[in-house]
């Protein structure tokens, strides 16, 4: 028996440049997959969001470069909330796993660790 689970993560950039966006999003996707032992064929779809200050390119394009090239992805813009974390990209993967698979770990990198201080993040 299989179940569908969502796993999330976030990262931040230091500047709005395509090279850094590619590097940081690829790092995030790789870390989510590695830390949770997820194989590409288990991924059903993904949602990739970015804060309004990221304009250099679509973060979903960077996620495709990070290994999600054949995964359906929808991109969206985060709400421009007061005191929101700037230059932030969030990823949510929907994966199909065996019933006995343990819970998945969220991955927050760089300044995005501030988003969820309640989680035991490495």
In words, what does this structure look like?
The protein is α/β, with parallel strands linked by helices and 122 residues long. The chain has a single domain (2-115), classed as RutC-like (60s Ribosomal Protein L30, Chain: A), CATH 3.30.1330.40. 23% of the residues lie in helices and 30% in strands. The chain contains two helices and five strands; from the N terminus they run E-H-E-H-E-E-E. The chain has helices at residues 18-35, 59-68, and strands spanning 2-12, 43-50, 73-77, 88-98, 107-108. A five-stranded mixed sheet has the order 3-2-4-1-5, covered by helices on one side. Helix 2 (59-68) links the parallel strand 2 (43-50) and strand 3 (73-77). Helix 1 crosses helix 2 (59-68). The chain is globular. The model has no long low-confidence stretch (mean pLDDT 93).
Offer a few descriptive terms.
122 residues; alpha/beta; 5 strands
Any low-confidence stretches, pLDDT <50, length ≥5? none
The amount of helix comes to 10-25%
Distance linking N and C termini: 31 Å
Computed over alpha carbons, the radius of gyration is: 14 Å
**CATH architectural name:** 2-Layer Sandwich
- What is the count of structural domains? 1
How many individual helices?
Answer: 2
Q: CATH H-level name... which superfamily? A: RutC-like
Main sheet attributes: strand count, strand direction, barrel closure: 5 strands, mixed
- The helix/strand series, from N terminus to C terminus, equals EHEHEEE
**Oligomeric status of the shown chains?**
single chain
Strand order, biggest sheet?
3-2-4-1-5
CATH topology: 60s Ribosomal Protein L30, Chain: A
Mean pLDDT: 93
Query: What is the structural class?
Result: alpha/beta
- Content of β-strand: 25-35%
